[in-house]
Amino acid sequence: xxxxxxxxHLVGNYEILVYGIIFFFIIIEGEFILLITGILAHLGAxxxxxxxxxxxxxxxxxxxxxxxxxxxxxxKWHQTTLLKYIEKRVSSMMPHFQEKPFWSIxxxxxxxVNHAVIIYAGYKKIKIKEYxxxxxxxxxxxxxxxxxxxxxFSYTAIRISHEIWRxxxxxxxxxxxxxxxDRLVSWAYEVFEEFYHxx
Length: 199
Prior knowledge:
Blueprint: H1 4-13, H2 15-28, H3 31-43, H4 48-76, H5 81-93, H6 101-108, H7 114-123, H8 128-160, H9 164-198
């Protein structure tokens, strides 16, 4: 019977690769990799504070990458389908983006539209100082918050079972519940913005 110790041993043996995967997926995705990182930190496979510092560095890379992709899109491909999709997505979720860019960028981190918003911020050439302040402030809450949530998921699952398949199933159920709640909050915010914008 495989226990979670097998997983921690495996992660420990390939720690550099694991950090590379974390870095890549924070730039590409973000939320779920942070939950998994928190789980691995709770299991002792990764040091929580070193990993958190690494996550902040990856978050900064994502911040700059997205903004400069937006500038590139503005300069080279401003009539593309991708830009029209991003503009539609940001306009529906953040109708006050032009008037309140700080709060739009800040909130986007928590309602699953951050990638679109950071590219759009670069496209609209939002002042870099305001953009970085919003991204930095939101990342200070978002990164440790999701890692601690993953830590809690791991704590809950390990209290129920040390067997790796049961542990994984419990974690999967908890992450699925988180995803559903996150989608509901995102949907509720979108409805609120539509109502507020129309009023």
